[in-house]
Amino acid sequence: MAKVVVIFNGQVQKDMNIDRARLNIGRRPGNDLVLDHLAVSGRHAAIDTTSEGTFILDLGSTNGTSVNGQPIKKHLLQDGDVIELGKYQLKFVVEVDNYQFSPDETLLVGKIKVLTGANAGKEMILSKPVTTLGSPGILVVSIAREGNRFKITFVEGKLFPKINSETIDARPRILSHGDEIDLSGTKMEFQLS
């Protein structure tokens, strides 16, 4: 999971998880992250998370956006990067998942069973390192295999997927046996055996 640590005049103000595909930043109250300072534009910047990574974008702000002291329009964020907006600094932090697959473990089979729609009853074995599901422009997710773990990640779309009736965000999520995945009304079950 990634987050930004909000720093103002050298003092840490708060941490904010990047838990959606787009995190809007600016002075106006409607932003996801409100930075109340005159040097920050009403709609200053956005942090976009896609399958290619997490990017900071300047949204045509008056005073601009910098990363590590360099002015940017769009920048792929790396762990430890410092975003500067007016007097604010946002330190981008990636929390590392230390899961390691042991060669002694028996490799389990992951599969998706379609529960509703035209393909109800069909099963798909997750044999590739990454499997993509969904409809481009509406909702696309990927399921990545890491040893005996399967992580579902939002890739693109107008809506986020649901797992067990709970809407998930842009962060990868580990699937458990029996999890029900809802992609815009098409329900599927994740199975591990």
UniProtKB/TrEMBL annotation:
Domain (FHA) ranges: 23-72
Matches recorded under Pfam families: FHA
Signal peptide: none
UniProt-listed InterPro entries: Cell_Proc_Reg/RNA_Proc (IPR050923), FHA_dom (IPR000253), SMAD_FHA_dom_sf (IPR008984)
Source domain of life: Bacteria
UniProt name for this protein: FHA domain-containing protein
Organism encoding this protein: Undibacterium fentianense
